[in-house]
Specification:
Layout lengths: L3 H7 L1 H26 L3 E6 L2 H16 L4 E3 L3 H4 L10 E6 L6 H12 L3 E6 L5 H5 L2 E4 L12 H18 L2 H8 L1 H11 L15 E6 L4 H15 L2 E6 H5 L11 E5 L6 H13 L3 E6 L8 E4 L10 H4 L1 H13 L18
Length: about 350
């Protein structure tokens, strides 16, 4: 493995395992605090890739624990200096570096108003980690490539562990322990992608589609394709895509579709048929062997729908990396990007 990015992608199974082994007890304690506080809603402040992890929490906490989750608008706090009513909220700040000033400001305001605050970062001494009353450390080691990979999947894993601890269901805890092995299998299945990714090196426009639990997966894959390949890539819910944006699809237009087993699968299959009729190049990430597409990346079977986003993003990470290699672009340091982006 010649790049930091490829090495970090392949470190993900061990990163997930370390998080499970070293943070499970702490996350269980955090779940107890949340149950005692009994929030009426959750507000999550994040930027970039971390915002995509927050999208996962919208579904996982809403479906499995019945808590509505909103994504914060940090500009309300930093530019307009307003303070929405957050006194009965669980307010979570998610940041890989823990250094986004606007995310920290949301946490500061929430704590001052009496909210229960939690930060999730890979830097326990960072400003965001210190600002919140509670912290979950991702423990995934230093990430040197600009494109976030293992920090994203450990963020989603941490949120899933929190959901499992809140529900107290033993089968959810058991399912969580299998995720490092599922990630290892996912990476092995994605290796064959190198044989065909290069045929898309001249594509300058993409769409990425998901729904339900994989809304976050579509957004994160799209972000990786954009930032590593300097192309236009639009991410949509399958439902939103039908409401007009499908018009962008013309013959040869590449569409990445995230369609594993789950409630949205029949809708995704129907959309794949419509994309075929429009001449799209359908690149499908699925565990369904019978799905027909121009290109298909298989996922391992047996993952519960609520946990599949942890692994389903990995083929998209590898696609973005292999495409950049085929185009001769820098892998670890895409032009014009920095590892830490501080927004205010």
């Amino acid at each position: 493995m010649t790049t930091h990015l490829e090495r970090e992608i392949h470190e993900q199974p061990e990163a997930l395992r370390r998080l499970l082994n070293e943070e499970s007890e702490h996350i269980a304690d955090m779940a107890g605090k949340i149950r005692d506080f009994d929030p009426t809603f959750v507000l999550i402040a994040a930027r970039g890739t971390s915002d995509n992890a927050a999208r996962y929490a919208q579904y996982a906490l809403g479906i499995e624990y019945g808590l509505p989750v909103a994504l914060a608008a940090p500009s309300i706090h930093t530019l307009y200096h307003a303070q929405p009513r957050m006194n009965r909220a669980l307010v979570i700040g998610i940041s890989q570096s823990g250094r986004s000033e606007d995310v920290r400001q949301v946490i500061d305001d929430a704590r001052a108003l009496g909210a229960l605050t939690l930060s999730i970062t890979n830097e326990p001494e960072s400003p965001i980690a210190q600002a919140a009353a509670n912290h979950i450390w991702l423990r995934c080691g230093e990430e040197l490539a600009v494109a976030a990979t293992k920090t994203y999947t450990t963020q989603v894993m941490a949120l899933a562990m929190l959901v499992g601890a809140l529900t107290g269901h033993a089968e959810m805890q058991t399912a969580l322990t299998a995720m490092p092995d599922h990630m290892q299998a996912t990476l092995a299945l994605a290796e064959g992608m190198a044989e065909w990714v290069g045929q898309y090196r001249d594509s300058e426009r993409y769409a990425v589609l998901g729904r339900g639990y994989h809304y976050c997966t579509a957004f994160e894959i799209g972000q990786k394709v954009k930032e590593m390949n300097s192309v236009t890539c639009e991410q949509y819910s399958e439902a939103d895509f039908r409401h007009g944006p499908i018009a962008i699809v013309q013959r040869g237009f590449p569409v990445i579709v995230v369609a594993p087993t789950g409630k949205p699968l029949p809708l995704m299959i129907d959309l794949l048929d419509k994309l075929k009729a429009r001449g799209a190049e359908r690149i499908v990430i699925t565990d369904q062997p019978d799905i027909q597409a121009e290109q298909k990346v298989m996922l391992p079977g047996g993952m519960p729908e609520w946990l599949a986003p942890i692994c389903a993003v990995a083929p998209g990470q590898i696609y973005a990396m292999r495409l950049a290699e085929a185009k001769g672009l820098p892998i670890d340091q895409p032009e014009g990007l920095t590892k830490v982006t501080v927004t205010r």
